Amino acid sequence: MAADATSALPVQLVEQPRLQKLKEMFISKFGSAPKFYVRAPGRVNLIGEHIDYCGYAVLPMAIEQDILIAVEPVKTQVLQLANTNSSYLDFSTSVNNIQINKTKPQWHNYFLCGLKGVQEHFGLNNPTGMNCLLDGTIPPSSGLSSSSALVCCAGLVTLTANGKTLSKVELAEICTNCERYIGTEGGGMDQSISFLAEEGTAKLIEFSPLRATDVRLPSGAAFVIANSCVEMNKAATSHYNIRVMECRLATKLLSKSKGLDWKNMSRLQDVQTKLGVSLEEMVSVVEEVLRPEPYSAEEICKCLGISLEELRSQILSRNTQDVSTFKLYQRAKHVYSEAARVLEFKKICSEAPANAIQLLGELMNQSYLSCREMYECSCPELDRLVTICLQFGAVGSRLTGAGWGGCTVSMVPTDKLNTFLKNVKKAYYKDDVQRLELEKNSLFATKPGRGALVLVEA
């Protein structure tokens, strides 16, 4: 687990057409050849939505789609970034004193997060300049972690170019923290699976301390990703951070009601740990302490005995300070019940009963209902896509990623896979010209892929 993240894998470029093409484009762009390549995968979360930032374990796997960057360290302290997709504009800046614009989540700012995070970790006063050409196959803003894969890729690029080494766990933690430079208050799932993934297995990712455990998925089912084609950028809206704050506020109110030191409690898991009760009991605590109706900011201040100014400056994030009402009961109930579903999912995979596929499918369906009803992070297109997937043979289907758009993941018995793909394609994509154009990269079965790595020409 503590393997060095920078150990390079030699590859024959002639056997890797995508790498060969990237090298040729790099030479055409910069007039010289790249010295190494870095790849970081996207991910699909099978179960455990919106609970990593509350301290709870999640169950993702890496997918084949990835971010691939060709890199040449240079003598000048200048970063030149280019993208094989011409809709992403070239960018250049000094590698000293990196500035990241939180108000515009443009593609290069995610690269700068990874760069800045590694530089600050090592206190690099004389960082290496770089020419970088990026090629991405993860659909953007689709809930498959394209932005975090780019942050991770950039962190590994910077580490390698500057001749530094870190374990995969250390690099995952740095990349989790540095993505906050762009304003996303994430929990670390995306970065952890990007580095810790191994081919052929999903992972139970636990936090504090970060660790990953293999989860062998049942052989009789495939996981199918379907993109709703509704884009959702976490950093461009406040939906995501509002949910993070609602969980934080629920933590404070639950703690205060139980006589705990609420000022030092920020995650829902902290409350469970301090009370020493089960997740199921925490659901009962939520029902006893919190009410389903929304709380106003003023009510929360009254409950905690603080001023509105203290609430805004000490608890809320920058882009949630003007929110006037918060749903605490629903968010906390989702988190505790979802955390229990993750552990149950892993248990079923470990014990492999005869009806494992059916049981896992039911957990995925319960997770989706909770995301839709309690966390309110679905949207009409995702709802329709889940209905279609279940109608055509999925035993379980749910939104994956932040929600409000992006993808669903469905568990489909392998003997029904081909008819499932054909029917979903017809029902969801063929009736919409825009979706039909995107359909090739929007509906696919996936297997657990490998994590981030450095590649060099053999």
Automatic annotation (TrEMBL):
<dbReference type="InterPro" id="IPR019539">
    <property type="entry name" value="GalKase_N"/>
</dbReference>
<dbReference type="GO" id="GO:0005524">
    <property type="term" value="F:ATP binding"/>
</dbReference>
<dbReference type="Pfam" id="PF08544">
    <property type="entry name" value="GHMP_kinases_C"/>
</dbReference>
<dbReference type="GO" id="GO:0006012">
    <property type="term" value="P:galactose metabolic process"/>
</dbReference>
<keyword id="KW-0547">Nucleotide-binding</keyword>
<dbReference type="GO" id="GO:0004335">
    <property type="term" value="F:galactokinase activity"/>
</dbReference>
<comment type="subunit">
    <text>Monomer.</text>
</comment>
<keyword id="KW-0418">Kinase</keyword>
<dbReference type="InterPro" id="IPR006203">
    <property type="entry name" value="GHMP_knse_ATP-bd_CS"/>
</dbReference>
<protein>
    <recommendedName>
        <fullName>N-acetylgalactosamine kinase</fullName>
        <ecNumber>2.7.1.157</ecNumber>
    </recommendedName>
</protein>
<feature type="domain" description="GHMP kinase N-terminal">
    <location>
        <begin position="109"/>
        <end position="196"/>
    </location>
</feature>
<comment type="similarity">
    <text>Belongs to the GHMP kinase family. GalK subfamily.</text>
</comment>
<dbReference type="InterPro" id="IPR006206">
    <property type="entry name" value="Mevalonate/galactokinase"/>
</dbReference>
<dbReference type="InterPro" id="IPR013750">
    <property type="entry name" value="GHMP_kinase_C_dom"/>
</dbReference>
<dbReference type="InterPro" id="IPR036554">
    <property type="entry name" value="GHMP_kinase_C_sf"/>
</dbReference>
<keyword id="KW-0808">Transferase</keyword>
<dbReference type="Pfam" id="PF00288">
    <property type="entry name" value="GHMP_kinases_N"/>
</dbReference>
<dbReference type="InterPro" id="IPR019741">
    <property type="entry name" value="Galactokinase_CS"/>
</dbReference>
<dbReference type="InterPro" id="IPR006204">
    <property type="entry name" value="GHMP_kinase_N_dom"/>
</dbReference>
<dbReference type="InterPro" id="IPR000705">
    <property type="entry name" value="Galactokinase"/>
</dbReference>
<dbReference type="GO" id="GO:0005829">
    <property type="term" value="C:cytosol"/>
</dbReference>
<dbReference type="InterPro" id="IPR020568">
    <property type="entry name" value="Ribosomal_Su5_D2-typ_SF"/>
</dbReference>
<feature type="domain" description="GHMP kinase C-terminal">
    <location>
        <begin position="354"/>
        <end position="429"/>
    </location>
</feature>
<dbReference type="GO" id="GO:0033858">
    <property type="term" value="F:N-acetylgalactosamine kinase activity"/>
</dbReference>
<keyword id="KW-0067">ATP-binding</keyword>
<feature type="domain" description="Galactokinase N-terminal">
    <location>
        <begin position="25"/>
        <end position="73"/>
    </location>
</feature>
<dbReference type="InterPro" id="IPR014721">
    <property type="entry name" value="Ribsml_uS5_D2-typ_fold_subgr"/>
</dbReference>
<dbReference type="Pfam" id="PF10509">
    <property type="entry name" value="GalKase_gal_bdg"/>
</dbReference>
